[in-house]
Design a protein that fits this description.
alpha/beta, ten-stranded mixed sheet, 14 strands, elongated
Length: 344
Amino acid sequence: MAKTDLRSMDSVELEQFIIEMGEPKFRAKQLFEWIHGKHAAEFSEMTNLPKTLREKLENTAKLPQAEVVRKLVSQKDGTRKYLFALENGSVIESVLMKYEYGNTVCISTQAGCRMGCRFCASTLDGVERNLTAGEMLSQVYEIQKDCGERVSGVVLMGSGEPLDNYENVLKFLRLINDSKGQNMGQRHITLSTCGLVDKMYELAEENLQITLAVSLHAPNDGIRNSIMPISKANPMDTLLAACRAYAEKTKRRITFEYAMMQGVNDSDACARELAGRLRHMLCHVNLIPVNDVKERAFVKSSDERVRRFAAVLQEHGVETTVRRRLGSDIDAACGQLRRGYLKK
């Protein structure tokens, strides 16, 4: 019989599980603290639980772990890139980014991705499976153990489309925000989507205080359709209407991610067209020189072109930033570490 994944359970589910085992329900609070407060890897660590209960848990339950199989550490800024192995052979990537204001982890929500964005390595082999909430949490917990410092922020921007794994991602958000666990403030969490419009409306109804980052990467449907297949099902007007609705509902500013690709979407004309679409929206644009992926033909825009593009947007009243590039000496585009491992 399959063992029950306790790391993916919230406090209510843990309590029900414990009661069904014939144990007093206060044991659920102890379990939750061990799993999400102390990040226990084994039931044997839970020393305030009776030995008989620990033995029962060993036989009926599990605490899935993300096991580090490779780690790259930047000598420039301390960025760490991890390749994790999960149960059943899945491998995923995560990144620790160190800032003056704290440590942020970029996690994966799926093993692979089925969105098919033309410039991304994560989509090259499609999607293998969704990750559980516990597997997402384990990335954060294991990185925190490895670096010996608290992780205060998370971006769901690694492999996978978070809204394509909606229920598990929502559970992850609630668990990592739980005051008895990691207690991470929602405003320190960013969820990135390529634009699954129906799910964006659902997420707005949750009225969370997370930041929603939308991978836009183009000023019009013509360019976007050529680089992002999802755009054909969710045209830009439809997507931007969902973004406006989200911002109005949550009162949270939308971030638009824009990967700068030489000769594709980086002209002054593109910048003016983009500004025309975004003017008067509660948003800002984050410009990102596209990652070099050997299987893809796209070339990142020059620093001068990125600066000029940003200047045009700002001249038209659109708040714009250029993403600071971390870990440049261990450069590995999202999905590249995983793909290299799987091709061995």
